[in-house]
């Protein structure tokens, strides 16, 4: 992706298109070029009024908005603005091998601790990883996974006033 001012052009432009040139011969853009037409959900930011029913706020990223909307339908008590516990958002796997996966998520400000639960997608029972501390960048490495298999993964935020599950993500481990 081309860059202007050291950031991806798609993150600098407004809307979903990225077709504006940098200013010619300026120190912040010595090699001006048109940004390619791209779409990146990570670069879409909500700029409207707060939508309390879904806890969508100014500055939320596209992936967070989608997760909040799905949570509102599937588990509305977790996004109740009066609740002390919220769902972890941004749950993703950043590294998957044939037998392990690194899972990361956004911090839940009201969480005291987290649990991570995972299972083969075809299984009925979950494996629990308890006592994951509240940190600025929570993550957990899961090991002992079966190669070339689908796994369901979810985070449970544990707060003083209860707990709240994230959306379940699905990952596929790699072949050996």
Please, could you describe this protein's structure?
With 176 residues, this protein is mainly beta. The chain has a domain at 81-172: Immunoglobulin-like (Sandwich). 10% of the residues lie in helices and 31% in strands. It is built from 2 helices and 10 strands. The protein has helices at residues 9-12, 62-74, and strands spanning 3-4, 7-8, 92-96, 100-104, 111-120, 127-133, 139-143, 150-159, 162-165, 169-172. Strands 5, 6, 8, 9 and 10 form a 5-stranded antiparallel sheet that branches. Strand 5 (111-120) and strand 6 form a beta hairpin. It is globular, with a radius of gyration of 20 Å. Mean pLDDT is 75; it is low at 1-25 and 34-38.
Main features:
176 residues, mainly beta, Immunoglobulin-like, five-stranded antiparallel β-sheet, three-stranded antiparallel β-sheet, 2 helices, 10 strands, 10% helix, globular, disordered N terminus
Q: What does the average pLDDT come to?
A: 75
Specify the helix fraction band.
under 10%
Biggest β-sheet, characterized? 5 strands, antiparallel
Which CATH architecture of one domain is right? Sandwich
Q: How are the SSEs ordered, and which strands pair?
A:
Elements: E1 3-4, E2 7-8, H1 9-12, H2 62-74, E3 92-96, E4 100-104, E5 111-120, E6 127-133, E7 139-143, E8 150-159, E9 162-165, E10 169-172
